[in-house]
Design a protein that fits this description.
With 508 residues, the chain is mainly alpha-helical. The chain has one domain. 87% of the residues lie in helices and 0% in strands. It is built from 20 helices and no strands. The radius of gyration is 22 Å and the shape is globular. The two termini are 19 Å apart.
């Protein structure tokens, strides 16, 4: 009951934050696209678009440090938490220096023959790239602070900072709409400064709030912990870097073969998918620390149960929103944007399908990481990620259409799913039969019936608001009914009921 209460409280805070930020973020994207135009928006996506990948990199690296913080909390060892924080500071400082050097080397090749950018805009693109590098360094050295907040499950601060971020981004979008200077340059500069300011705020707060956040490298440096964390962070960084390089490599491939206009369509697809995934990611922020702490308490059964339930709920949460959006994507994009870039509709549909599929194993990396044995799983996942780029390159040289990169992504997610199931079984002892029955089968039945019901209005109604409303009603009602009665087992229904009651108490 205490666990349900804690998850309900944190989830409630994050969902309030999300309700505010998703709406504002979507409107901000519309303003930015209108202010920059499709070409400059495409340039920012191909060059400065990696700034958005910093969120992903930061999350992945934070997860590595959080694993040790949460594990130590599960053990009840306060001094070890101080050791871990100081070791993490040293480790991420050197990682930050290495990444900056790597980005500078990569940048030389990007702007000398790889990227296709109008010569008149190349200097601005180079400056945006430098803004990215500065933001990257600050992001990496602040990872230990994010790990502390997550380990303490301080979702209120996470929510407040996220709201402040989207409000300031909206202010930036409004500002560049009215200022008569180079809007692309100003947008890149302000976005980089925003990242740095928010990270500094996190650091100041953590030093005042948490006793283990004290910088005394000589006193709390521990060689064995450094060795263990270096190994774990190295393999974790390999996996996260492979996925980040691949996603950014997709952008460069699309730019090289099809130009910045198609990059604009890709930017729209990533924005929509990112906002809808916020619903499931919000729940995972509250659940992931519990998975790791359970392992720290030497309670493997509790850890696996939380992980499997997290996969299922994350899939259903994204499915709830993804089905009507995929079905009515043309109407939604035309309603949202003034000018819809070519390929935006098909990109959005394929990427949403890919994201929904990935939720079926979304917590398994956390569960595997909780055991500390991540070498084999990260190596296999890295190979799967990296293979996407040469395969897509060959297909483009043979005349494939831009949408091919997203179909390849779907096949890659299938391979990742198989890999994660295998390692969750061999490393954590998860029953594959129970997982296939309880998660895959239930998820397939629910998604098939919901999609079939939601698509019915397309048979007898013309595109418009009335049809969109009917699709939303059919998909929402059928999703809730089927998730409760088909998707969940008895213990999950009990847990969700307890969470719901505790969440309601918070608002009374």
């Amino acid at each position: 009951m205490q666990q349900a209460n804690r998850v309900a409280k944190n989830t409630g805070i994050l969902y309030i934050q999300m309700a505010i930020t998703v709406t504002m973020s979507l409107y901000t994207t519309r303003l930015i696209l209108s202010a920059l135009g499709a070409e400059d928006f495409g340039i920012f996506n191909v060059v400065g678009g990696a700034i958005s990948m910093l969120t992903f990199l930061n999350t992945a690296m934070t997860t590595a440090s959080q694993r040790f913080m949460s594990f130590a909390q599960g053990e009840g060892d306060f001094e070890k938490q101080k050791n871990i924080f100081n070791v993490s500071l040293v480790l991420h400082f050197f990682i930050g220096i290495a990444v900056v050097l790597l980005l500078e080397i990569v940048g030389y090749f990007l702007f000398n023959g790889i990227l296709k950018i109008d010569p008149d805009r190349i200097e601005v693109a180079k400056m945006i790239y430098q803004f990215l590098i500065v933001s990257t360094f600050f992001t990496i050295i602040s990872v230990p602070y994010d790990a502390v907040m997550n380990a303490h499950e301080n979702m209120l601060l996470v929510a407040v900072l996220r709201i402040v971020e989207v409000v300031l981004k909206l202010g930036i979008a409004i500002a560049i709409s009215y200022l008569a200077i180079d809007r692309l340059y100003l947008f890149g500069l302000l976005m980089a400064l925003l990242t740095i300011v928010l990270l500094i705020i996190r650091q100041i707060y953590c030093h005042k709030k948490y006793d283990e956040v004290t910088i005394q490298i000589k006193k709390y440096y521990n060689k064995s912990i450094f060795k263990e964390m270096t190994s774990f962070a190295g393999w974790s960084l390999l996996g996260s870097s492979a996925s980040m390089i691949t996603m950014q490599g997709m952008t460069i491939l699309i730019n090289s073969f099809f130009g910045v206009i198609v990059n604009a369509a890709q930017g729209i697809a990533l924005q929509i998918t990112g906002q809808l995934m916020a619903f499931s990611n919000t729940m995972l922020k509250a659940l992931n620390p519990i998975i790791v702490k359970s392992e720290g308490e030497n309670n493997r059964d509790k850890m696996l149960k939380a992980s499997i339930t997290g996969n299922k709920l994350s899939f259903f949460l994204l499915l709830f929103f993804a089905v009507p959006v995929i079905i009515e994507m043309p109407y939604i994009l035309n309603l949202w944007l003034k000018d819809v870039p070519e390929y935006a509709i098909i990109f959005c549909r394929l990427n949403l399908f890919r994201a929904t599929l990935s939720q079926l194993t979304i917590t398994f990396p956390t569960a595997i990481g909780a055991t500390g044995n991540i070498k084999r799983s990260q190596l296999v996942e890295s190979v799967i990620w990296i293979l996407l780029l040469p395969i897509s390159y060959l297909m483009f040289t043979w005349g494939a259409q831009p949408k091919t990169i997203y179909t390849n992504l779907i096949f890659m997610v299938v391979a990742l799913t198989i890999s994660r199931i295998y390692f969750a079984h061999t490393i954590c002892g998860m029953s594959i039969k129970n997982y296939l029955t309880d998660v895959i089968t239930r998820g397939f039945i629910v998604s098939l019936i919901v999609t079939a019901l939601a698509i019915l209005p397309l048979v007898f109604m013309q595109q418009g608001f009335s049809r969109l409303l009917l699709v939303l009603i059919l998909s929402s009602v059928s999703s809730v009914f089927l998730i409760i009665n088909v998707g969940m087992n008895s213990s999950e229904k009990t847990l969700m009921l307890a969470m719901g009651k505790n969440l309601l108490k918070r608002f009374k």
